[in-house]
Amino acid sequence: MKVGIVGATGYGGVELYRILSNHPHVDECIMYSSSEMDVPYSNSFPHLSDLSTHTLNKIDVEEIKKNVSVLFLATPPGVSRILSPQFLDSDVKIIDLSGDLRLKNKGEYEEWYKRPCVDEDVLEKAVYGLSELNKAEITKTNLLANPGCFPTATILGLAPVVEKKFVHEQSIIVDAKTGVSGAGRNASQATHFSETNENIKIYKVHEHQHIPEIEQALRSLNEAITCISFNTHLVPMTRGIMATIYASLTDTYSTEEILDLYKDYYANSPFVRIRKQNEFPSTKEVYGSNFCDIGVKVDERTGRITIVAVIDNLVKGAAGQAVQNFNLMNGFEEKTGLYFAPIYP
Ligand SMILES: NC(=O)C1=CN([C@@H]2O[C@H](COP(=O)(O)OP(=O)(O)OC[C@H]3O[C@@H](n4cnc5c(N)ncnc54)[C@H](OP(=O)(O)O)[C@@H]3O)[C@@H](O)[C@H]2O)C=CC1
Ligand SMILES: CC(=O)N[C@@H](CCC(=O)OP(=O)(O)O)C(=O)O
């Protein structure tokens, strides 16, 4: 199968290349760029010298339709809004890593992303690709909205207790941390070495664009969810997301009971690993892998629960999850080309 990557020169794009170039059902990856063409891909990424003989191609919709079966969009917000609709009359399957197709409410997208949204008929066709919750729909779609990095960790961390009503719906607080690669490859003052090194900084306080995405997904599991408290912090590491989640329990559950609930809930989800009692995952334990690791503990004194979910933002939070969806959309086994160990230490 031939696949295309738009935004191949970015962090999401090069992570897609790393995974897809080792995928047994991918014969060729064609790389597209909006700013460079006919130059070797390895000019952008010297670590691929001799491994990649690809060149960058111009984004030409009609050429892409002739040449690829699946197109990944690893592009900034706003690009998929223009590109995706142009493929709806073709057989090309679209997997969009940006936020453009994730929110079902057009007004909500425009409010949180502060830019125009794609038309409602396109939004209706898009399927939200969190495969642990939505596998059946993913296998049938040609237009896939790949979840955001923070939503992936947060929703997977909360889904069992929210769906089974083990927590009070209005009591959820999420304290999330991310590595700097979450901001993409372009340099900015916020991600400058001297701003991030030996520093932890909260950002987008109460205004993060992933808030409505998380609420939308949780509401699909339990309609009593209205809003959550959610904040993000930039920490001095390259990859990784940790979502530390707090909520009030609806009854006196033990940690053991809740761990059993999580193990049952994710019994058929090969990329979710539930930790043992009193064991909490760290970001390094999923680095470079498609795993989401989860630890939980009941605080008997306060009647609250602490849930910790970690992912690699570029793998389970972006390119790995996109390939997981690619597998499901094409009838391949979900783990194909993806079931590898994290890089450790
Ligand atoms: N980084 C992360 O951890 C995650 C990122 N995402 C989302 O994935 C998407 C890609 O992120 P990331 O790879 O980090 O970003 P980068 O900034 O690293 O890369 C984005 C790429 O998009 C291309 N691009 C820019 N403008 C256009 C345009 N107008 N048309 C086509 N291509 C364009 C650029 O390549 P060129 O100039 O060669 O065209 C650039 O290399 C974003 O929407 C991001 O929010 C989602 C989850 C996690
Ligand atoms: C460190 C950092 O800045 N991370 C970005 C990740 C956002 C992202 O990936 O954007 P979409 O999922 O909305 O496309 C942020 O927090 O906004």
Automatic annotation (TrEMBL):
The protein's annotated pathway: Amino-acid biosynthesis; L-arginine biosynthesis; N(2)-acetyl-L-ornithine from L-glutamate: step 3/4
Annotated SUPFAM superfamilies: Glyceraldehyde-3-phosphate dehydrogenase-like, C-terminal domain (SSF55347), NAD(P)-binding Rossmann-fold domains (SSF51735)
Catalytic-site annotation from UniProt: 149
Cytoplasm recorded as keyword: yes
Coarse class of the protein's main subcellular location: cytoplasm
Any one GO molecular function term: N-acetyl-gamma-glutamyl-phosphate reductase activity
Gene3D superfamilies: Dihydrodipicolinate Reductase, domain 2 (3.30.360.10), NAD(P)-binding Rossmann-like Domain (3.40.50.720)
Pfam families tied to this protein: Semialdhyde_dh, Semialdhyde_dhC_1
Subcellular localization, as worded in the UniProt entry: Cytoplasm
Signal peptide span: none
PROSITE patterns given in the database record: ARGC
Family: Belongs to the NAGSA dehydrogenase family. Type 1 subfamily.
Function: Catalyzes the NADPH-dependent reduction of N-acetyl-5-glutamyl phosphate to yield N-acetyl-L-glutamate 5-semialdehyde.
Name of the featured protein: N-acetyl-gamma-glutamyl-phosphate reductase
Originating species: Metabacillus rhizolycopersici
Lineage: Bacteria, Bacillati, Bacillota, Bacilli, Bacillales
Gene expressing this chain: argC
